[in-house]
Structures are given as structure tokens and as C-alpha cells.
Q: What sequence folds into this?
């Protein structure tokens, strides 16, 4: 009986040590911060960089983070933000028809979530066969990653548009044991709020870009600032040289 009790105590202690070793960020405080970022109108790059920094400081040892989305733009298919631990700022990626390598999309983890409808994807980055399913995992392995987790936060679109839209997040860690179940649950809870803040910021930026393309910079600036009443005019002085 004594031996069994001792074994049970050891198991409980091991569980407690494991849980305390993997501390989590304060979800409530981080959620308030995300909401405030959206209300303040901060750029998506600043929001994502700040979020990654707080996640890392809060106890989740992320090595790399990606935030990507399709966008409504006359020249671009989508955009992405890449955060790397130790790097300054975030790297912005623009996805266009020109830089879309034929066949590459079919072998990316993002396709599983964006096109195939899987809400999330998790792969341990271990073993020599790691890149057979998704070649990008082999690249991440060379960078020291041990675990990969991706999640899409979809949002409703008009029925006339059959494309699946949303914000996709992917995360890697170089911790030997990979992500814990509690950390993955934390991502599932907090990422929808981040997706909303990032989407609002990105929509604001690309709305400006589209308006500039079709209206011109000055007219776009005035329209987006609220000068949209019918019949509203502005008198300007000008000269015509013949």
C-alpha cells in the first residue's frame, strides 16, 4: 500500500511540475489588448508583432509565426506577415499571380485549411520523412523547429463568392516536446480575436489602396474621411495653360 501511495504521489508531482513548467499568457489581459489595438486603428503588422512578443514573454516558446489572408485588391491575391524570434519587426509578404509557383500551393499546409476546409492542422516536425507530405516542414526542421500548428479563423462572405476567406495563423516551436495541449487550447481561444483585429486593420489599408487605384489619392482620401454626401463639391483654384 505504501509503495502504491508513493507512486501516486510521484505521478501527481510530475503532473504539477509539467503544468507549471509550461505557463500560459494571461488570456483576459491579452484579449483586452487585442481589442484596444483594433479600436486604435493600429497597422496589422504592429498588432501581429506585439501579439507574438506577448505570447513569447507569456511562456509559449514560439519560434516563428505567420498571419496570412486573401484580400480584395486589383493586383494582389493575398498578404502575409511573418514573425521570427530574434528578428526585428515582421516580414511582409505579398501574394500575386506572378509569384505563384505552379503546383506549389498543392503541397502547402495552408491549402488543407483554406481549400479543403480543415479548421486546423498540427504536425510534429520529426524524422527523415518530415518533408514528404509538406516540403515546407523540412525547411522548418532545418531552422530547428520541432512542432507546427496551423489554424484558420474563417468569416462569412456573400453567397455569390464561392471562395473561402479567413485569416490563417501558423506557429512553430523549437521546444523538444513541441506544443503542449494547453498551449494549443490557448491558441484556439485567443486567435479569433486576433483575426478580427488584423482583418480590420488590413481592410482599412487595402480599402485605401483600392480607392487610390480607382479614384486617385486625393479623392480617395476625402471619400474615406467621410465626404460622401451626394452633391458635395469643393471649390479649388486652378489655371489652364494653352
A:
Amino acid at each position: 500500500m505504501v509503495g502504491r501511495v508513493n507512486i501516486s504521489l510521484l505521478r501527481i508531482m510530475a503532473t504539477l511540475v509539467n503544468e507549471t513548467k509550461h505557463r500560459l499568457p494571461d488570456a483576459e489581459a491579452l484579449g483586452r489588448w487585442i481589442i484596444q489595438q483594433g479600436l486604435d486603428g493600429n497597422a496589422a503588422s504592429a498588432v501581429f508583432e506585439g501579439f507574438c512578443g506577448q505570447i513569447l514573454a507569456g511562456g509559449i516558446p514560439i519560434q516563428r509565426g505567420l498571419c496570412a489572408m486573401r484580400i480584395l485588391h486589383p493586383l494582389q491575391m493575398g498578404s502575409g506577415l511573418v514573425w521570427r524570434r530574434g528578428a526585428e519587426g515582421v516580414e511582409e509578404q505579398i501574394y500575386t499571380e506572378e509569384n505563384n509557383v505552379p503546383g506549389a500551393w498543392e503541397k502547402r499546409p495552408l491549402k488543407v485549411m483554406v481549400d479543403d476546409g480543415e479548421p486546423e492542422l498540427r504536425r510534429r516536425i520529426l524524422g527523415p520523412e518530415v518533408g514528404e507530405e509538406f516540403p515546407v516542414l523540412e525547411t522548418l526542421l532545418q531552422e530547428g523547429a520541432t512542432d507546427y500548428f496551423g489554424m484558420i479563423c474563417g468569416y462569412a462572405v456573400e453567397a455569390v463568392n464561392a471562395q473561402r476567406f479567413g485569416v490563417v495563423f501558423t506557429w512553430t516551436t523549437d521546444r523538444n516536446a513541441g506544443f503542449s495541449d494547453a498551449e494549443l487550447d490557448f491558441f484556439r481561444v485567443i486567435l479569433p480575436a486576433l483575426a478580427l483585429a488584423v482583418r480590420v486593420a488590413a481592410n482599412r489599408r487595402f480599402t485605401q489602396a483600392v480607392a487610390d487605384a480607382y479614384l486617385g489619392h486625393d479623392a480617395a482620401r476625402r471619400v474615406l474621411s467621410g465626404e460622401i454626401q451626394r452633391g458635395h463639391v469643393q471649390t479649388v483654384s486652378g489655371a489652364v495653360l494653352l
Notes: The longest strand covers residues 62-70.
